[in-house]
Amino acid sequence: MTGLSHTQNQSLKSFNTFGFDVVALQYLPIESPEDLPVLFQAESFKKQPFGILGGGSNITFTQDFQGLLLHNKILGKKIIDQSNDTILVEFGGGENWHETVLYTLENGWGGLENLSLIPGTVGACPIQNIGAYGVEIKDCFHSLTAFHIPSGEFHVLNKEACGFGYRDSVFKREKKGQYFITAVQFRLSTHPEIRTQYGDIQATLDGWGIAEPSIRDISNAVIHIRQSKLPNPAEIGNCGSFFKNPVVSSDIIPALLAQYPDLKTFPAGEGFTKVPAGWLIEKGGWKGYRRDNIGVHAKQALVLVNYGGGTGAQIIALAKEIQADIFQKFGIELEMEVNAW
Q1: Is pLDDT above 80 for 47?
Q2: What is the pLDDT of residue 3?
Q3: Does the N terminus or the C terminus of the chain have fewer Cβ atoms within 10 A?
Q4: Surface-to-core class of residue 118, CB atoms within 10 Å of its CB (0-12 exposed, 13-18 middle, 19+ buried)
Q5: Would you call 241 a catalytic residue per the annotation?
Q6: Catalytic: 290?
Q7: What is the pLDDT of the chain when averaged over all its residues?
C-alpha cells in the first residue's frame, strides 16, 4: 500500500471497550502526523474504504471492518504558552484521555478535573465535545490541528470553527469523516476554579470531610462516583453512556411532572429542558434487563453492556427497542451517543 507497515485481519477485540470480537481487513497505527500525507496520496489507499479509531470507547462494531482502519497513536505533550493565570498546553491526538487529565493535575493545571475517568483519547474528545459534572471540553478548548483528508492539508481549527454543541461538533455533522485530529490545545488555569455544584461531587467531598477541595480532590470525587455507577470495561464490555440526555420543548414538562413527580430536569436554553435519559430508561423498566449475552446495566440504565460473546448488531437492536419504547411511553426521542460501524 505504502511504506507504512499495516496488518491484515487484525483482531479488534482489545481495541473496543465493548470487547466485540471483530477484525479489520487491514489495520494501520498512525504514530506521526507526517504519515498522513504519504498515506492519503497513495493510489492504493484511494481504492478502499477507511475508518479512524481512537480509544474504541464510542464505537459499536456491528461487523468486521471491511477496509483500512487507521488507529490514532500520535503521542506528545508540550507547553505552547504561559501567563500568570493560564497555560496553553498541547497533547497528541492518540494520548489516553484519563492519563492526560492526571498529567494536568500533577502540574496543578485546572480545567479538566471534572472530566476524569472518561474513556477514549485526546483526539476523539472534541468530536463528541465530551462532558461530565457540569464541564464540557469546549470550556477550556483552544484549538486543534488536523489533517484535512479532501485537500491533503493540515488545518488549525479554533473553538468557533469546531461548532461545539451538546455532545456535538462539526466533526459529527458537516465535516464528518473529513479530518484526522493529530493534536489538541487546551487553555488551562494555574489558579483553578473549583466546581462542585453538579451531581454528587459536593456530597462526596462532604462525606470525606474535605471543606476546601483541590482539583485533585475534585478528580478523586469524580472517579469515585463514576466507579460506583459505571461498570469497568475491563470487567464488563461497555462504552459508557449509550444515549444522549434528550433536550425537549419545555411545553411538555408540566404534563410529565404531573405523571412523574420524581422527574429531574435541567434548563437547556430558552424554551428547552434537558431530561435525564437514564431516568427515562429506568422508568421504562429497562434497567437491569438482560437478553442472552447483552443487556442494560443493573446500576446505570444509560449503559448497555456486553457480558461476553455478545455482538454489536445485538446491542444496536436492543438500543432501537429501547428508543421505540421510550418514545411510546414518554413521547421523547432518545439519540444514541455511539457510532455504529
Answers
A1: no
A2: 56
A3: N
A4: buried
A5: yes
A6: no
A7: 92
